[in-house]
Amino acid sequence: MNVRKIIGWNLRKLRAEQGLSQERLALAAEIDRSYVGRIERGSENVTIDTLDALATVLGVPAAALLIEPAKGARQPMPLSSGRKPKIG
Question: Which of 5, 22, 80, 82 could form a cystine bridge with 42, CB 3.0-4.6 A?
Answer without folding.
Answer: 5
